[in-house]
Amino acid sequence: MLNYTAQPTHDRLPVGALLAAAAGGLDAYTYLQHGEVFAGLQTGNLILLGASIGQSQFARMAQYATSIMMFMVGTIIARIIQKHWPYGSCQPSAAPDSLLRTKLFYC
Q1: Are 58 and 67 in contact (CB under 8 A)?
Q2: To pair with 28 at 20 to 30 A between CA atoms, which of 9, 34, 48, 95?
Q3: pTM here?
Q4: How many Å apart are CA 35 and CA 84, to the nearest integer?
């Protein structure tokens, strides 16, 4: 039997298996229903981009290239946010007069 007391919840095998299954399901859904482009599997998009280049399918090449570029843009935005607002650097305001100052949005 596994000892879960030594590991945080996010490091446990069942949680990882559920997350992997959810990601796989999302990728399968987006591939089948949204133009044969993966949502989170950029390696798959890169392989399909190479195949479309090799077969001179330029319309498909644009789909895969756009998906990869938008993933890169999202990653850049996330890194900028992490750089400017590191975890734990936000301090709660004394007067919570807006939704942005509620406890949900504290770092």
Answers
A1: no
A2: 9
A3: 0.60
A4: 35
Which residue matches tokens 């007391």?
A: 5
Write the CB contacts of 83 (distance below 8 Å, at least 6 apart in sequence). none
Cα separation of 84 and 88, whole Å? 12
Tokens of 81: 């946010």
Residue 67 C-beta-side C-alpha neighbours within 13 Å: 24
Q: Each residue of 18-40: pLDDT tens digit?
A: 988 998 888 889 888 888 888 87
DSSP 8-state assignment for residue 35: T
Please state the length of the chain: 107
